[in-house]
Amino acid sequence: MKYKIDLKRFIIVLIVFGSLILLIRGCLFSAVVNDVPTDDDEDEYVKIDVRLLEADGSVSTIDLEEYLVGVVAGEMPASFETEALKAQAVAARTYAVKKIEVLGGNPCSYGHDLCADSTCCQAYRTNEQMRQTWGDEYLSKLDKIRDAVYSTSGVIITYDSMPIDALYHSSSGGYTENSENVFSSAMPYLVSVYSPDGGGENYRKQVKLSADEFVSKINRAFPKAKLKKSGLNSQVEVLSRFDSGRVETIKLGNTTATGRQFRTALSLNSAMFTISIDDEVTINTVGFGHGVGMSQYGANAMASSGSTYEEILTYYYYGVKLEKICS
What we know:
By secondary structure, this protein is α+β, with helices and mostly antiparallel strands. It has helices spanning 2-28, 64-75, 82-97, 127-134, 138-150, 211-221, 232-235, 259-266, 296-304, 309-316; strands at 49-53, 59-63, 114-115, 155-159, 162-163, 168-169, 204-210, 236-241, 247-252, 255-258, 273-277, 280-286, 294-295, 321-324. The protein has 10 helices and 14 strands.
């Protein structure tokens, strides 16, 4: 009898404890955002500390919203429209939430949640870096970015009530890309859409290589290719493209590579490219970045046409909701 009573008590305690966990998780991702949060809402989000590995190798603890000021400053030009900056702030916050350990995320590495290296996490600028970059415009640009971050305090992007992989890139070249065409898996909210992003100094780029340089780089990256300088034009051919226009596969001598692999081997701006071979190799790219998720220049174009940050985000991330981390 004593064993049965203890078992019942254990089950009751387990149910209560489990309910508390669900309540806490539910609070973190509860209230659906229908309107832009007002300044009065600023204190309603959970104060979250981020353990940030800075460029000098030190780990600092910084409030999530202050961290996001540095991210938006590093990821998007401050000259962009305010609604585009807000969209960037929400995407960056969502990305960060999935990394923060106390929220159940997967940290960048042991001992810190995120780092300041854009090749690993998100770009991040300190106040001093902003001051040096912007000069006399430092205060006005900082105020603009802080407004974009704090006017969306706590807002994240969710799918099935969980934060999404909020991928973004500079410019798409006309169409964004399905996630499975670039990364390992298909995400229902990361699908190809038209993107009005024909701007930016990196939107169109031309790369010229001598035949010797091209053959050397390709054979180093793809040893099975065995390219030869003579008759090079017949050894290289784009075999297929995705619907977005990005190269899916390309023939390189005795092997076949993906457009993404080819882009990496030659450090191209995007996998949306054309290639011509004469006395030299000419590669023309359109867009900048992997092309998955939100296009930053597309977001700015939409904002210039009157779209709100909610409209921008729900356009680039299909079937998502905007929810707020609550206290």
